[in-house]
Amino acid sequence: MVVLNKIYTRTGDKGDTALGNGARVAKHDPRVEAYGTSDELNCFVGTARLHASDETDAALSRIQNDLFDLGADLCRPDMENDDKAEYPPLRMMPNQVDRLEAEIDAMNANLEPLRSFILPGGTPLAAQLHVCRTVARRAERLATELATTQPINEAAVRYLNRLSDWLFVAARMANNAGKDDVLWVPGANR
Description:
By secondary structure, the protein is mostly helical. It is about 55% helix and about 5% strand.
């Protein structure tokens, strides 16, 4: 359980922060960039929930919880020492990715195949989900960049990749099951 008695600590006033294992790094460290962007994504998902139906809201609530799990995973280096930690580190699990895939398949079964790229927009929910999708892609890029220099949990990267797909399909569902998608017309304004 997390207990926050005091919100400010002044420990980061010189531009560094503590990781999940207590190590201190610069606030612009690639690991901090990756989990900070997953936190940013979580905020955008919270905004999308303002426009969601009960079923979509429940799914987005699960995703927000997963994104906190993801942040906890990414902020904890030294995966090889997980078994020696005082408290077992929280890691993303393959079943979290599997759940997203099952939900994508269920939503996609109700959609006509795309015959054009779609422009972000349509309903307020669809537009917000497209914002979430692009932030998820940025978080994924940062996580894969981190993985070039430090070990990270493969399930974390897979989750981000699948989440952006989930957000895309959910945006189409929010546009009247794709019927109100805004289609890209190549060269329309030449």
